[in-house]
Amino acid sequence: RILKRMGRRTTQADLKAIVERLRTEIPDICLRTTLITGFPGETEEDFCELCEFVKQMRFERAGVFTYSREEDTVAYDLPDQIDEQVKQDRMDILMREQLEINEQNNAAMIDKIITVLCENYDPVSEMHFGRSAADAPDIDGKIYFRADKRIAPGSFVKVRIREVLDYDLIGRALTQ
Questions:
Q1: Separation between Cα atoms, residue 161 and residue 113, nearest integer Å
Q2: Do 168 and 141 contact (CB within 8 A), yes or no?
């Protein structure tokens, strides 16, 4: 209902089918999405449906934002504008749901070997850090790793993940 109200051409069923096909054809895919809470007319039932959708889809990365009115848009004058606190509360609920999914996804990474783009060395933690192909710079967590020698920034390194710390992964570079 909300997708239609937003003028989107896809339905929830369409989106589920697309995600299922992508996950089947590309097993290691990292799916990222952005969600909006508090679009005009969003009911508690609509919001619960969105939460259930997020739980089912288990996106690897998700950003959640509150709807904000922008002049010269169709939605600006729609009736049933949502209270700012309700929008914020719904955003917080969705972010907690996604955090739980992230924690489970990260826990499943333990003992896996992933390719990491080394970004630099952190002298405080005495570890290098970087990101995988799934991680957007300045948005997603980092991958911290120990190595037997200094790794030049810009180098790709195979890293075995050993621990999880919030949104970050911690591992050890494989001998090169």
A1: 6
A2: yes
For residue 112, what is the enclosing H or E element? none
Collect contacts of 93-100 with beta carbons under 8 A, ≥24 apart.
93/47, 93/51, 94/35, 94/37, 94/50, 94/51, 94/54, 94/62, 94/64, 95/64, 97/51, 97/54, 97/55, 98/54, 98/59, 98/62, 98/64
Contact 161, 109 (CB under 8 A): yes
The CA–CA distances, whole Å, from 44 to 1, 2, 26, 37 equal 12, 12, 34, 11
Are 142 and 127 in contact, with CB atoms under 8 Å apart?
A: no
Which residue is associated with the tokens 């690897």? Answer: 60
Indicate the pLDDT class of residue 175, thresholds 50, 70 and 90: confident
Residues 6+ apart with CB under 8 A from 152: 118
The two tokens of residue 137 are 């710079």
Radius of gyration of the chain from its Cα atoms, rounded to whole angstroms: 20
**Residue 174 DSSP code:** P
Spatial distance between the Cα atoms of 121 and 155, rounded to a whole number of angstroms? 12
CA distances from 92 to 59, 116, 140 (A): 17, 31, 18
* Band of residue 96 on the pLDDT scale cut at 50, 70, 90: very high
Q: What is the pLDDT of residue 31?
A: 95
